[in-house]
Amino acid sequence: MTKFAIFDLETTGNAASKGDRIIEIGIVILQDGKKVQEFSSLVYPEREIPPFITSLTGIKEEDVLDAPLFNEIAEEVHQLFNGACIVAHNIEFDLSFINEEFKLSGLSPLHNPVVDTVELARIMLPSASSFKLGQLAQELGILHGTPHRALADAQVTSSLLQYLLEKMRKLPERTLIHLLKVESKLKSNLYGLLKDAIDVHRYESSDFKEFELWQGIPVRQVPTSILSNASQLTGFQEWIAHAYEAPKGLSSLMNDYEPREGQKRMSQAVYEAFTQNKHAFIEAGAGAGKSVAYLLSALYYACNHKERVVISTHTTSLQQQLLKEEIPKVEKLFNRKVNAAVFKGKSHYISLSHFSYELERSHQDNYDEALTKAILLVWLTETVTGDADEIQLPSSGQQFWHKVSAEQAARIPSVSSEQYSFYRLALMKAEQADLIITNHSLFCMDLMSEEERLPEYARAVIDEAHHFESIASRQFGLQFSYTELQRQLSQFNELFHVQSWGLTGETNQLIFSGDECRLAIEGAKEELNAFSRYMFQQVKRQNQGKAKSDIGRIQYLLPQAEPPAFLEVAAEMLDRFTAKLNRLNRGIEQIINQLEPRILLGEKAAQIISSRFSSQKNSLESWRKKLKEYFNYDQNQVKWIEIDGDGAANVIFLFSEPMDLAENLQTQLFMKKKSIVLTSATLTTHNSFNYMKGSMGFNKNAQLLELSIPSPYQFNEHVQLMVPDDFPDIKQNEEEFILALGEAVYSLAQVTKGRMLVLFTSYTMLKKTYQILKECIDPEEFMIFAQGVSSGSRERLKKNFQAFDQSILLGTSSFWEGVDIPGDDLACVVIARLPFQPPDQPLQKVRDQQLKSAGRNGFMERSLPQAIIRFKQGFGRLIRSKKDRGIVFVCDKRLMEAKYGKYFLSSIPQVPVHYQSTSRLIKRIEKWL
Question: Motif DEAH box: residue span (predicted)?
Fold first, then answer.
């Protein structure tokens, strides 16, 4: 297969079946790896070109007025595809359009072999951050002159295809053979290409010393030891002065390095806390360089004292930043290799035993399973960690991953002690490391679990520490989803198809036991459905007209005394469900016992299946215990139920969190460890750490190390804070407030040319504001993206926002922090309301009542500090570098008129504040910008 016809289309919309038409076509013909022909033409679509398409492609109505109809070029185009493998980036889209046009032109549709470069890129570039054509081109250094023009996109796709085919040819022969097992289930016809690549190996000598076979699968060679010997470093004060001040210090390692006294003070404070066995709270404003500051001290302490230190973060992006960017830089200041390891739970790592077993059963795969296997096969030739966070799996790929993660390989000795285990390797590296980087969830699970999740440590830095309380509270409580448990049961049900296990010999008794277990699962699903449906109706009845969560769910707080009668009925229904689970567990034990002789004889399939049953049995037993305990009276837990009032009538969510988390943290963390340093850009409120100290269980007079380092950015020169004084009172008329908000956003956007992030505390308000903006804004003027309305993850929405010159991004919850949009892409942050938690949210309500009964002020001690920290996070979205400049527009008069408004203002950097009518503020903004 040596001829490729690579093509791309621009169209009036997404669906040929709904009458959308082609407006431009570009084709590149490759023959024997060389470009031999190009074809390009605009096409008159016989309908209007929508503004969005013009904005995306630059193709206007007048550009196509003299262009040919498609039927005028149809035969020439059809001939170009003759005898070729057809290639496109997302081929289903392009092929459906062109075949529809061929049909309208009286020509036969194309049935050639095809290659989808989206699919092929997912397989051959498993660690790519995006599979959009433009971003792939940028990552691979392929020039892309005019994106979203047909011929330019076809040219880039042809370059991408050649790159991917070359990568395929360099794969180990055994990997290519495994890929053949899944090829038939893919969209692309890769059989001939894979066979050609295999033939190259067979007829040319290929040297693959960088790979080794694990379970018959080629895997990149991984270093098995990271130990190193080194002499002692000089004294800390001398060493840290050299790091910050000497010509061969940080200034030689970092571009645009500027000495910052606050950064050096932070390094000294962290080291002081470690050496004096103190706990510390350190706030470091944006741009203070806190990660480098604490890394220097943590690594110095670990190397000089031969004692590991743990770094815990909230986001995986910060973990990768520390490991890939910051640590390699500061390592050069040491006279030895720095041993740092990211360590996660077992579910993150692949088990080669389980993956090998699944590869042998590829004839049973659906599309997503086949694609996931192909991705994993190529990834295993690249990864040195086996950590799934390195790759993007397809939508159903997570379900397959659950089958092959190290979590499944934990119970059968022959599987759990497999010679080649990425989890065991990660654990070994963590045990040898100077620095372990982990996440808050695993860090907290280690505190509360009887099973040790992390290697032993005495000192830790908790970065992004403003999240730590909420993560810990969830880990010490319960989160139950009806949908998730039903999914687990359905997935578990598939495991009992004994005929698909690949066992040898007699299996009749196993088939009988499997059928019995499947009956028990179906019974359990029916009981769970009945229980959830009943709870849904009761919660809906109890909570008529009550407030909702920030994502719109109805919440019902379980009374801590005198439970209502319906909860007794619910507990009885739950007993029937757990009885079915008990019956299921007995059946699983029978199957495990029946498999035991086969395991002793070394039958691999029996070992794999038995380990999966053990893993699932433990998971279900854990759920059974948690659900039984949930309806037991416990004054130390706050429990509530959530439902989506407009959603399915059986989908419920159960939650519980500790009444007093602070006590748990004191006993499990601060009293057991010698030094814990908590750091973030937002830890203080009204220039005090008292709220954060209290939430962690410390009294105001506790002997702690406290340090607040201001941001080095010139906020007073680069930021203006605007508060309109003429907004309607939201309590009197919410609809008028939202209308005024929409009008203000539109007016601001005209001055700032879009480049605006609007932050909400309520998803309902976000959706209403979005509808208002969509009605009054022409898409040619501004693009509008909204969390939960526009498709895509937070990162995808951010990238879309940055891709357009004039755009507005609406976000709630997660958008208040962790969204970095530096430079000219962001000129204005609008804060719709001060970010107070609704007072009737369950956890907030009970903890406020607890404070009130103790004669304390819940609003001042909890609600206000929480809101201030969140406000600081939102405010911080605007200035992410020393060159950034813009407006923070707060549509909440309470900031200026309420007594507590001064606490918000005193907690952010000093900036000019203007409190005037909306029209005057907009004129002021226009002049200032």
Answer: 463-466
pTM: 0.87
Per-residue pLDDT reduced to its tens digit, 21-69: 999 999 999 998 899 999 999 999 999 998 878 888 999 999 999 999 9
Sign of CA dihedral 730, 732, 734, 739: negative
Residue 50 and residue 163 in one domain: yes
Asked if 643 and 742 sit in the same domain, the reply is: no
499 lies in a domain? yes
Domain membership of residue 755 (yes or no) is yes
Residue finishing a domain among 169, 197, 227: 169
Q: Which domain holds residue 613?
A: 478-658
Same domain, 574 and 723: no
Confidence label for 547 from pLDDT (cuts 50, 70 and 90): low
- The span from the first CA to the last CA of the chain, in angstroms, equals 59
Write the CA distances from 587 to 409, 503, 520, integer angstroms. 21, 19, 9
Per-residue pLDDT tens for 60-99? Answer: 999 999 999 999 999 999 999 999 999 999 999 999 999 9
Q: Confirm whether 497 is domain-assigned.
A: yes
Comparing 63-77, 160-174, 323-337, the range with the smallest average pLDDT is 323-337
The identity of residue 811, as a single letter, is G
pLDDT given for residue 202 in this prediction? 77
Q: Evaluate whether residue 82 is within a structural domain.
A: yes
Kindly tell me if the per-residue pLDDT of 673 is higher than 90.
yes
Residue positions forming the annotated binding site: 284-291
Q: Would the pLDDT of 488 be above 90?
A: no
- The DSSP-derived string for 571-630 is HHHHHHHHHHHHHHHHHHHHHHHHHHHHHHTT-HHHHHHHHHHHHHHHHHHHHHHHHHHH
User: Rounded to the nearest 5 degrees, what angle is found at the Cα of 917, between the Cα atoms of 911 and 920?
Assistant: 75
CA distances from 718 to 287, 344, 827 (A): 14, 40, 11
**Would you tell me how many other CB atoms lie within 10 Å of the CB of residue 106?**
9
724 has a pLDDT exceeding 60: yes
What percent of the chain clears pLDDT 70, i.e. is strictly above it? 96
Positions at the binding site for ATP: 284-291
Shared domain for 153 and 271, answered yes or no, is no
Query: Per the structure, how many domains does the chain have?
Result: 4
Task: State the Rg of the chain over Cα.
Answer: 30
Determine the Cα–Cα distance for residues 914 and 313; give it in Å rounded to an integer.
Answer: 37
Residue 786, classed as helix, strand or coil, is strand
C-alpha 349/C-alpha 407 separation (Å) is 8
CATH code assigned at 97: 3.30.420.10
Q: Examine the domain organization and report whether 650 and 734 are in the same domain.
A: no
Are the beta carbons of 485 and 528 closer than 8 angstroms? Answer: yes
